[in-house]
Amino acid sequence: MARRLLFIHGAGGDLDDRPLAEEFAETLGMTLDYPVIPPDDMSRAAVIRPAVASLSASDVVIAHSFGASMLMQVLSDDPGIAVHAAVLLAMPDWSSDGWDIAEYDLRDRQPTVPLALHHCRDDEAVPVGHLKLNATRLPQARLYEHAVGGHQFDGEVGSVVGSLGRDLNAG
C-alpha cells in the first residue's frame, strides 16, 4: 500500500497551496491526498476530520496556514484520532496576543500527537512572531524557523522534509 501525504490547504488556498503540496508529495515519494475545502466553510472540520481519520500509521499530515489552525482544532477536539505526527506550516496564532479571533484560538486545548511547527522569517502573510506565540501554547512541539521561503516555503520543502525523520519518531 502506498504511503499517503494528507495536505490541508490554507484559507482559499486550494489553488495557491497545490504546488506546495505536490512538491512535498514528490519529495517524500508519497501519494497526495489533497481535499479541497470550500472557501465558505471556515470551520473545515467536516472535511478535515474524515480525511485525518482515514490515515494509517505510515501516512503523513501537513497543514498550511489557516488549514494548520483547523487541523489543530480537530486534533484537540478528538483525542481518539490517531495521527502519528502533524507538520504545521506558517500557522497563525489566534489568541489575544496574535490575531485575536476567539473562534479559532486554541485556548487550553492540547493535541496528543507529536507536532512540528515551521515558519519562515520572511513570511508576508503570517508574521514569524506567530511561531513563538504558538510555541508558548504548544510547548511539546518541535520548532523550526527558516530564514527565507515566504508564506509558501519557496525553496524550503527539502529542509522541512529533512526534519520529518525527527518529527515522525517523536512521541
Short description:
With 171 residues, this protein is of the alpha/beta class. The chain has helices at 18-28, 45-53, 66-77, 129-137, 157-168, and strands at residues 4-8, 31-33, 60-64, 86-89, 115-120, 142-146.
What do these coordinates show?
The chain is of the alpha/beta class and 171 residues long. It has one domain: Alpha/Beta hydrolase fold, catalytic domain (Rossmann fold, 3-Layer(aba) Sandwich), CATH 3.40.50. The chain contains five helices and six strands; from the N terminus they run βαβαβαββαβα. It has helices at residues 18-28, 45-53, 66-77, 129-137, 157-168; strands at residues 4-8, 31-33, 60-64, 86-89, 115-120, 142-146. A six-stranded parallel sheet has the order 2-1-3-4-5-6, sandwiched between helices. α4 (129-137) links the parallel β5 (115-120) and β6 (142-146).
